[in-house]
Every structure is written in structure tokens, then in C-alpha cells.
Amino acid sequence: MNSIVVEGLGKTFKAKVKEPGLLGSCRSIINPIYREVHAVAGIDFKVDSGEMLAFIGPNGAGKSTTIKILTGILHPSAGQARVLDFIPWKDRYKMSFHIGAVFGQRSQLWYHLPPLDTFDLLARIYEIPAADFRKRRDELIERFDLGEFQKTPVRKLSLGQRMRCEVAASLLHRPEVLFLDEPTIGLDVVAKQKIRDLIAEMNKAEGTTVFLTSHDTSDIEKLCKRAIVINHGTIVLDTRVSRLKRDYIASKIVELRVTAEVSNFSYPGVTVLKSSNYGLKLEVDTKVQSIERVLAHLMNDYQVVDITISDPPLEQVISAIYSEGTGGRGV
Amino acid sequence: MTERMAGHTTGNTTGRMINKSLHLRFGKYTAIGRISFLTNMAYIAELLWRTVFMALIIFIFSQLWAVIYSGTGALVLGGLTYQQMIWYLVMTETIALARPRIDALIDQEVKNGDVAYRLSKPYSYLLYHYVSYMAEAVMRLVINFAIGSIIAYLTAGGIQVSLSAILLFLPAALVGLSIEFLVRACIGLGAFWVEDTESFLNLYEKALFILGGMLIPLELLPETFRRISAVLPMNFVLYRPARLFAAFDVQAVWSMFGGQAVWLLLLAALCAVVYRAGVKRINVNGG
Amino acid sequence: MFVNDVVWVLFWRLFFLRFPVVNGWSFQDITILWALFGGGYGVTFVVFGNVGRLAGMIARGELDHYLLLPKNVLLHVLVSRSSMAAWGDLLFGLIIFCFAGPVSIGKFVVFIYGVLLTALILTSFCIIVGSLAFFLGNSEGLARQLLTAFVTLATYPLAIFKGLAKFILLTVIPAGVISSMPLQLIKTIDPAFMGTATLFAVGLFLMAVYIFELGLQRYESGNLMTVQM
User: Considering the domain A2-8+42-246 in this protein, what is its CATH number?
Assistant: First the structure.
């Protein structure tokens, strides 16, 4: 069963074109010229009920536009979409009872009051009968471990505690689809993991469809099985996360600290990203050169004090994916 | 899948279903009001500070009007004795100092996208703000009224106030504040089209000073101003309720509520139109 | 704020239409008061834009930045901000003075002198009130109320106040010195008043500087009551 169906979805904005300088400003007031911006230019995908999907792309790729359309805020210029059999922009009110949203930068908790008060309010807003609400609330408080501070004003909570309350609050009305926009932003490593665990748990226990956007690679890797990459308004890639890593990460970053200065480092298949007195940052193109050989070479020829090997940032992976051409590798 | 449509639980009679439905549908707004009230309790110190300002203003006015009354030798000016005049001014200040700055809040929410965000929630944006506004306004009104009455009594002594006047003043003031809510909401929603809505608020505020009868009862203004004031909503926010209290007049009650009702309807319609236009902008532009 | 000032003058116009004389004050006199205060307020906040924010700055530890620099702290703090809106008040003051009756060079010079005295008094008052934060901790609310009180009181004819109120207005909250000026400085120059007012303003200023420096020492030595953030 599909909880989200998107077909040929498109959204075009008209942006005013302003030429530089005073004359340009005057002209844009008197006789404005508009440029069409295709924020979303025809996307298609289906999300199964209970699936956890990562929806990623660089800034300006069309992510927020898509989410706004799916939550009924924005009307599309073309195409169709259905969320739980509702047409988001037409059935917005009815649909809102069945979806939840957590926007990392925005809070729906009342700042000066304890989370419990917000929960009570949400129960009324979502028209949850009293008995159902109490049971649900207690269940969530236990699951999310909020008992200790449920009566503390929100402004006194740490960011990690607040986010747990936010996510719990968004689940009070048992939404079938949950939109999460940067839910772990600003959190420390421990708090991030906790939130991820809780979301995964809820998904498993209740079959909530999760639609996640995040710039944190670990969020994507640890939570989602499927990732859709969007760039310049079109879907560039729709694949399993495991394949994303395997097939598209074609390089590794090696950072090392040495005791003696390294000058003019060069090795086939390796690009020097940064070089300083006692350190080097290299990128190894693993299609061309094996990482083991590079490491062996480094350990042999240099006095290495410390070495770190990591994957390139997801942004880089995505840009690399995109630069291979749109509509290329599908599922 | 749980079937949780509003109020529909299996096995209820139609009557109970409807009751439950209404209760659930509007219960959310009383809940919003309650939570807004609780939040404002956190600012109670601020509210009390404001009454210090009221005391100062009333003191100044009492001195000014004492000089006027003794200087002109009149016992009654604009239909009010000195004591009534002071109580009148206390009442206009009571209402004036109870007004929450909802325009600034809505302006901010339009600009930072909160309006768009709230579209994904199952409640009416305007109703939500109206209820929060009124929760705050009621609290401030009651505190101002209590302390203002003490100040008036200490400054000018008591006046004869009929029971009707006391019972009608607060509701009249609340309706007046509702009118002001609509004006401010329209101004705040202007943020969809205009960068600086504060200037519009300023204009309204200045008009309120004079045409609302805040500083001087409308009877003492020249004819032209009285005429202009009669066709604008400001006098229904401050002047009419305050005057009702200071010098009760049964006829005035009907014309006041009548006028307030007219403006409420007009402004509510305007507000709804502006809001819908704004939402349309979000729907097209993303807000 | 320009519009604000205009509306007040309009109010007084309407008021004086109905009540032409109030204890010796006419519409012309109140216009002159507004011109004086508008000008004085304008000068104060254009030149010393931070003067109304001292209490908050002290409470938030923002003076540290200035203490590190080789300049006089008070002066530097005060001039590092300038209010745009205050230009409106200054402009208003100058314009409305021209409408308040026949203007001669002599009268204009005296007017400017009055504006400068007003600015000096207002600045000094703000410094003193702001400096309370050195001794009382977070007194931002109090400072704001006192400033509002001063501004409000300064724009009403002194003649309506008597007794204790009048005394307070000529000493603790010296708004009354300013509201004496229209009758005793501009309409007719009373040399005794001019002398006393000048001495008062200068004395107040010196006192303000002294209080600030005293508080600053406390600040530097870390005796300041910390603010709960």
C-alpha cells in the first residue's frame, strides 16, 4: 500500500530579474521582468506505507518545495500527488489529522511552559478523546524517557531533551506519515543517536511512514533504507542507501599528521586537498588506486603520527552523482 | 488503522455525536486560550510595571484637568464632572494599556514562514491568534481595571456608578479590543506585501489617540473631528466603553453595541479576505 | 519620532481651541515646549544614541568591549550608536519652532541654547538612571520606566503641577526644568532662570559622570551583581 504517490510533480516560481545599479532598480519597478524558476521540474516516486525514506539534495535542490507541496502548504504548477489518499493542497485540513511534521528549526512547544501543557493542547487541537490521549501520552513519555522533565518549562531544557519532546509531540495523534526536516540539527552525537533510535523504534512498532530530510549522513545511513536524491528540481537517484554508499562513493579522504614536513607529495590517483607543516589531507580516487597501496606508501615513506580515513561528505557524493548526468543511475 | 475522525466513536447516538463533535472542534480553541493565559502569567511582573506608568499618566491628567476645571469655573465639561473626567481617562487607559501587540507577532510570523508552517496544522490561524490575544487582553484588562480604579479613587474620589455600567464595561471593552485585534491582524498580515507594517500601525495608533478619545473625550473636540471619529472604528475601542462607565446612559449602550457589531463584521470580513489573499500567496510563492 | 510629535501638537491645538489658557500657558507656549524638547531629545539620541540603553548594556556585560580600548568609556559608549528616528524629532523641533510665533535671530539663538540645555539635562538624567545598573543589577525595566516618565513629564506645562510634585520635577526628575523654559527663557528671558538652569544642567552632568565612573570601578573590580541569563 502506498502512503505517498507523486507523479510528474512540478512547481515553477516567477522571480523578478533585477539588473544591477540604480537604473536597473528603477527599471524593475516600472517594467518588471520575470524569470521562471523551476524549483521542482517533474518528479515521480512512490513511498510504501511504513517505509523510511531519506529525501536529500543540496540546498536549493527543491527539497523544501517538495515537502511544502506534500504537506499542503504549496500548490504545484503541474502533476499530481497523493498523501494517504488525500490531495494535500485540496484536503489540507482533513489530511492534517493524519500527518505529523517536525521542522528542526521550528518548535511547536510553548517556550515558557512544561512540555506536558503543550501535549494537552495538542490533544485538543487534534481532537483526541481524553482517555486515548492519556494512554498515548504516558506511552510516549515512557518511550522517549521524558518523565524526568515533563514538568520543566521548555526554555530550561537542553536541545536534546527538547527535540525528544518535539518528536514525541508530533506522534501524539498517531500520524500515519511523519515528515522530519533536519530533526537532529544542532544536537551532540549522543542526542542524535537517541533521536534516531526513537524514530526507528516508532517506525517498527507502529508502521509510521517516515519522510526524512537531513544533511547529516549518519541520519540517512542509520535510519533509512531508501534514499531519493534531488537536484535542480529533478530526481537524480532513487536507490537503496546501501547501494548509494557502495556504488557512488568512489573516493576516500585520508588525513594524516607527520613529524617531518612533507613537501610536494604526489602519488598516482591521489589529490592533495590540503598541505601544512605537519599535516596532509588527501583524496584517494579508489577507482584508480587502492587505498591499501596508498596507506602502505604513506606508512613506509613518512613518519606518520596519526591517520584518519573517512568517506567524503555526502554533499560531495551527491554532487559527484549529479555530475555524472541526470536521469542516469536509477534503482 | 485507527478511525479517529472528529467525534466519531462507534456506538454513540446522533445527539451525543454532534455534541462531541462540536466540543472537540472548538475545544481546541479554549485550550489555546488557556495555554496563552498560562504563558502570560510568566510576564505578570511586566504587567504590573505598566500600571506604574498608568499611575503617572493619570496623575498628570488629574493635575491638568484640575487646573482646567478651576480655571474655567465650570462644574461640567463635555458632560463630565471633574471626578467623572478622571474616571473616564482611567478607563481609556485601562483599555489602551491592555492591548497586546499582535500585529508585530503576525508580521514576524509571515516573514519567518510560521504562517506557512501552521497551515499544516488542523486549526484556523486567525482564530488561534484571536484566542491567544484575548486571553492576554482579558488578563491585562482586569489588572488595569482593578489598579486603575484604585488610582482613580485616590486621585479624584469616587463617582456614582450604576451596576449596569460596571457589568457592561468589561464586555464592552472586550468587544472594543476585538475590533482592535482585527485592525492589528490586518496590519500584521500586510507583511505579505509590504516590508514595513509598523508605519501603518503607527498611523492607526496616532488616530486612536485623538479620534479614539484617549486623551480627551470626543465632546470636547471640534465638530469636524467628531464627525470623522463617528465613522471610524477607533471610538468604539476606547471612547464608548470608557464613557459608558463614567457617565452611564442607556441610549448610548445600544448605539455602542450596534456600532461595535457593525465594525466587528466589517473588519472580520476584511481580515478574512486579507488572510485568504495571503495564504494564496503562500500557495503560489511558498511564503 | 516625527509623526508622534506632530500628533501631540495636533492634540494640544485641539485642546487649546477649547481651553485657550491654562494657568498662563497658551498654545504657543506648549508648541515652544515641544520644539525645545523635540530638539533636545533629538540632539541627545542622535549624538549619544546609546544613552537609553546603558542599564541593559551594563547588565549584559557589554561594557567589557569598551574597557579594552584606549578611550574614555562613557563617551565612547554613548556615541557608538545614533538613532535615526531621533533626527525626526530634531527636525520637528526646528520646524515647529518657526511656526510658534514670530522668530528673530535673538529668539532663535536663545532657542538653540535651550535645546542644548535640554539635551544636557536629558543626557545626564539617562546616564544616572542607567548607572543604577552598576549598583542594582538588572535594572533595565526600571531605567526604561524612569526614562518614559521623564519624557512624558517634560512635555506638559509645569504650571499644572504644585507642591511636592513640582519639587520633584525640579530636582529628582528634572523634567520640570525643561518645561519651565517656554515661559522663562523663550517668551521672556529671565536671566536668573537662565543662570540657575545652566548651573543646574552642568552640575547634573558632572554628577552623572561621577556616578558612572564610580559604578565603573565597581564593574571593573567584579563586584557587579551578576545577571541570570
Answer: 3.40.50.300
